[in-house]
User: What shape does this take?
Amino acid sequence: MQCTFFSDKHWNQLYPFTFPHQKGHMRWGAFTLEQLWKEIASNASSLIEQENAQYVQQIVAHGAVNDRWVPDIAAWTTLSKLKSGQSLTCGEVVLFQPLEPDGRMDSMEFSEAHLIARPTDFFIDCGKTLKSQASLIQTHWKTESWNAALHGTHTTVIGDTAQVFMAPGSRVIASTLNTEGGPIFIGPNAEIQEGSHIRGPFLLDEKSVIKMGSRVYGPTAIGPHCRIGGEVSNSVLLGYSNKGHDGFLGNSVIGHWCNLGADSNTSNLKNNYSDVRLWDAASSSMQPTGLQFCGLIMGDHSKCAINTMFNTGTIVGNGCVLVGHSIVPKHVPSFSWGGDESWSEHQFERFVETATMVLERRHHTWKDEDTKRWLFEFQNSSFLRKELK
Assistant: This one.
């Protein structure tokens, strides 16, 4: 199914997950939104009338979808009721707009649409998301339920073994898997090493590794090609990032190509148990989240040294390098370098050099197009870095 996406003005509320994750590239659970729209389209064809399913595919092919809209069967059914040339809205937010809108038609309202509104939505909705995607994951990964004889006689499953889903090439070695809270999905060629303890809902995506002796509390989703060690609770790693050593990561969201140094720790609860405030890009100020638990939100290509300490409700932008012994500021603007009382700008040429090497380690190539896109982000965020100088 062909699907075109557009980004609306509310994307800055998802900072620091900006342009690399737009136009359908944002990962939600086991899928990018582009993949999820296609998976839902395939699933919808068997749940609603074939004629309606084909009509929706035709409508979507001749329009554009909001790239913060998470699809489900209800979304697909609502789209099947649209008239040709009509748009779909959720309050003031446009969900779908035809390439050739009919100005004579009123838009249709879909108030139940699921829109990603804040970066904290990723860990808040993680458990519900994994459970809702269960059938899609099983089909997409061609999983089979846990079989001790095939998958590991030295591993103990606590709860329903039918809720452990193993993709081809996946391995679990001498660990415990607890499905009492929700399902556990182990992706293609992913591995859980000896002595690890996993509680669902939990997802480990393709070629990711849980290192020896790790403890992971669900709901947690680990994207593809990640390395995880230590203790993780209710967090989401979007992919290609490492937390390979001891240290605690809780109620957090980590972007692509990040690295957390050994024994780095996040605080996810204030000492006075009050609600957490988080830096908001739309207002350029700290705003209440209504959450008691909130840890670290880290943008793409950011890294921290060993023993880094993150305060409750910290946002780190894209392309940052954090060093030093003091607690990291509550907001570190994109392309910042430093720690303690010493901060400077992460030189763009140096950023590109490091990013190129990091991608090569995962058999990816940094392209000239990437340099142009990231240079725009570098220039566009320069005014924020003045705060740390």
Remarks:
- The chain has three domains: 4-117, 120-240, 255-389.
- Residues 33-47 form the longest helix (15 residues).
